UniProtKB/TrEMBL annotation:
Keyword terms of this UniProt record: Carbohydrate metabolism, Hydrolase, Polysaccharide degradation, Secreted, Signal, Xylan degradation
GO molecular function, one term: hydrolase activity
Signal peptide: 1-25
Pfam families registered for this protein in UniProt: Esterase_PHB
Entry's localization field: Secreted
Organism: Nocardia xishanensis
Gene3D superfamilies the UniProt entry points to: alpha/beta hydrolase
PROSITE patterns found in the cross-reference section: PROKAR_LIPOPROTEIN
Protein name: Alpha/beta hydrolase family esterase
Length: 312
């Protein structure tokens, strides 16, 4: 049993959100594309819906977690299904060395290498507008874990290019707080589990990092409460109103929604998954629960996130 547990921990350290021992082959209909940026070839997947919505399409950028990939995120997040149902384009960027520079410095491989992921995302947005006629007023970002922390960072750096963000299991790095400024108000939906064993709900260092070969990091993240307070302050929001979501199933988790309705059709919303782990709600949960904590099936993250994006 100890040997099995040790193997699970090693697997999770290497691939936080990828499926250990599972294929991550992409759909043959979704092209794996390249974009030259800062002297490097960057990669991303594009999923175009079979029945696009009328007019210029929206685009959702979906960022994988540390150790993950574009193909893995496309398979596990549910956004291909949501794109087909709602007519938007789902875009899955891929990080250097399967990681993102989310502002935590050497805690990630991309951060240690000084990768300009903010610049890459800005260039990718420009490319999507030119190549796919994407509506520049309806470009959104979401991500899991390291990808969720990058999503928070993008909110601080690219608020003028993004219509809304929705980080999952990833709070804002403490180092990013002092110079986090908004070019325009930014709707924010955050999803985080209280039993997250990788990115603590109460803040602190991330417990598994690519930059430290699977060991704990050194650069802390804000607590979920402090992250929410930051976004409420930036958007001039009133205190949130709390409500309990009805249970869909008996899986040991529950969901509380704290919502602030802010000026200018801007909302800052938190879904707290009580007893939820470092997982994507509604997914298969392929990593061992002992490592990442429980998966909640009280909400479908992709469905919840798109419903939020669609009204902003």
């Amino acid at each position: 049993m100890l040997k099995t547990l040790a193997g699970a921990v090693v697997c999770a350290a290497l691939v936080l959100t990828a499926a250990c021992g599972h294929s991550s082959a992409k759909s043959p209909d979704d092209p794996y594309l390249t974009l030259d940026h800062a002297g490097a070839q960057r990669h991303y997947l594009v999923h175009r819906p079979a029945a696009p919505a009328q007019g210029r399409p929206a685009a959702v950028l979906v960022f994988h977690g540390g150790g993950g990939s574009a193909a893995q995120m496309a398979e596990t997040s549910g956004f291909n299904r949501s794109a087909d149902a709602n007519g938007f384009i789902a875009v899955y960027p891929e990080g250097i060395d399967r990681s993102w520079n989310d502002g935590r410095g050497a805690d990630t491989r991309a951060g240690a290498a000084g990768v300009d992921d903010v610049g890459f995302v800005a260039a990718l947005i420009d490319h999507l507008i030119a190549a796919y006629d994407v509506d520049p007023a309806r470009i959104y970002a979401t991500g899991m874990s390291n990808g969720g922390m990058l999503t928070q960072y993008l909110g601080c750096r690219l608020s003028g290019r993004l219509a809304a963000i929705a980080p999952v299991a990833g709070s804002l790095a403490v180092a990013n707080e002092p110079d986090c400024t908004l070019a325009q108000p930014l709707p924010v939906l955050q999803i985080h589990g209280t039993a997250d064993r990788i990115v603590p709900y109460e803040g602190g260092v991330v417990r598994v990092t690519s930059g430290n070969r699977g060991g704990a990091g050194t650069q802390p993240v804000l607590s979920v409460a402090a992250t929410q307070q930051l976004w409420r302050a930036k958007n001039n929001c009133p205190p949130p109103v709390s409500s309990q979501l009805p249970a869909r199933t008996d899986d040991g988790t529950s969901v509380t929604m704290d919502a602030s309705r802010c000026p200018g059709n801007v909302d800052v919303v938190l879904y707290t998954i009580t007893n939820g782990g470092h997982t994507w709600p509604g997914s298969e949960g392929r990593l061992p629960e002992v490592v990442v904590g429980p998966v909640s099936h009280q909400i479908d993250a992709a469905e919840t996130i798109w419903n939020f994006f669609a009204v902003h």
